[in-house]
Amino acid sequence: MRVVPLACEKPACQPIAPIVAFKSDFDPIKYPFRIFCQSVSDRRSPDEQVQTVEPWTPPNLWNKVSPATANAILTDLDAGPFDGMLYSDHNRAEGREAHLVVQKHAPDLNDKQARDIVKTWIKSGLLYRANYRDKHIREERSGLRVNDTKRPT
Predict the structure, then answer these.
(1) 126-140: per-residue pLDDT in tens?
(2) Distances from the Cα of 76 to the Cαs of 55, 67, 72, 80, 89, in angstroms?
(3) What is the CA angle 78-88-104, rounded to 5?
(4) Mean pLDDT for the chain overall
(5) Which residues, in sequence order, are bridge partners of residue 37?
(6) Residue 7 and residue 71 in one domain
């Protein structure tokens, strides 16, 4: 266990090591550090425990997508939804949304996380935008292709 240095305006407030005995409603994993405020005031007793603030780091998306899962997603993205069409990362790509393919293979990812994965792949060059002729609407469209040289191993 470690001591967390805290900047306190009152000289009587001192950081201490984590408390070994705590109440049953206290979660030592979520809140591992507390301090004693040793100044007596109207609101606090001298031995009262005060929660400290710990930095939070968001969960890593890439722990949920293994290289095998990523390759399966990329294979489906490269194949397209049907008959020569390509998936798209645009919000209004009805029936061609690339993030839905990610969610199909990794169902525990939410909408935003799946979109973030597609955006990351586009930024890295693994996915790139390509124009193609859509046979159904007889117009040029933009879709996503996979750069096979950058596939995960």
Answers:
(1) 999 999 998 888 889
(2) 38, 14, 6, 6, 14
(3) 65
(4) 76
(5) 13
(6) no
